[in-house]
Design brief:
11% helix, alpha+beta, 6-stranded antiparallel β-sheet, binds zinc ion, 2 domains, 14 strands, 292 residues
Length: 292
């Protein structure tokens, strides 16, 4: 079943035309429990990994026996997510992680591979597995139904002038836009109109744990863009407008359930997300990860 984000409750660029040049496309992945194969895009599924290629291990110190075999987190084929910009002939992104917290910001250590699927003729049948994993660090095998949507920046990344306008209820009324957040109109923009919750590729950086910080390539110093967002939930009570149309009945039925819906069963840094960023100059430069 595909998943469809409902039309945005407010046409935000009609109300605030200054936002129009800041629109960015993102691809919501909509992971749902399933049985993906190495030939499918997936979260927590088997990777198209060459039988004769070394499997990645984490060499950091852990409370356990030796290096830790990394765990598949996501496998994304460009045919499913055309937004990806792989290097050379590559058409497949693979992300793995070591399922333990690492210094300095207590997140799983990630490993990113770009691959040309046609070059993998003999697929590794039984990859090594980690001897253990931290709670909330093992994604449930999920199939994807990618969907392109449009995002606008977190309010903290906007100009002071635009931020003030978004926090002014009379500016919304003057534009004919209904804003139910009477006390903090800008939070309505933040929660329901700017950046989508859940797993996604591309778009804008999701801030929330910290104020925005520069994301500069460790190799060349260029700006970095969001690559993959690994989420601890697909929606919450304050991001209701992003619930896909096909999940509305389920979401309404579980309104009295205090937990946001989390099909991949991850729990990163007490419910936050991990957002991998890559260099604008070269996707092969080292990536960085942010917990937000
Ligand atoms: Zn590790
Ligand atoms: Zn770079």
């Amino acid at each position: 079943m595909s998943r469809t984000t409902p039309p945005r409750p407010v046409d935000i660029t009609a109300a605030f035309p200054q936002l129009a040049p800041l629109a960015r496309t993102a691809t919501r992945l909509h992971p749902r429990p399933g049985s993906p194969t190495p030939h499918d895009s997936s979260v927590g599924g088997p990777l198209l990994w060459p039988a004769d290629e070394r499997w990645p291990y984490c060499d950091e110190w852990h409370d356990g026996p030796g290096p830790v075999a990394m765990l598949p987190v996501a496998q994304l084929y460009v045919r499913d997510i055309p937004l990806l910009r792989p290097p050379g002939t590559a058409d497949l992104l693979q992300v793995l992680w070591c399922p333990f917290s690492h210094e300095p910001d207590d997140r799983p250590l990630t490993f990113v591979v770009w691959r040309t699927a046609a070059e993998v003729t003999d697929v590794l049948a039984a990859p090594p597995e980690p001897f253990d994993a931290e709670y909330g660090y093992v994604p449930a095998p999920s199939v994807l139904t990618p969907e392109q949507i449009t995002e606008y920046p977190n309010p903290m990344e906007l100009s002071e002038e635009l931020r003030l306008r978004l926090s002014d209820g009379s500016a919304w009324r003057a534009a004919g836009a209904d804003n139910p957040y009477v006390l903090a109109p800008d939070e309505y923009y933040w929660n329901e109109l700017s950046v989508t919750p859940g797993w996604k590729v591309g778009g804008w950086t999701r801030w929330g744990l910290t104020d925005p910080v520069p994301r500069l390539c460790p190799e060349c110093g260029a700006d970095m863009d969001p690559l993959l967002t690994v989420a601890s939930s697909e929606w919450a009570s304050n991001t209701h407008s992003w619930i896909p149309a096909e999940d509305r009945a389920f979401a309404e039925a579980s309104l009295d359930h205090p937990e946001p819906w989390n099909p991949t069963r991850l729990d990163l840094a007490r419910g936050y997300d991990l957002q991998l960023h890559i260099c604008r100059v070269s996707p092969e430069h080292p990536h960085i990860g942010l917990i937000q």
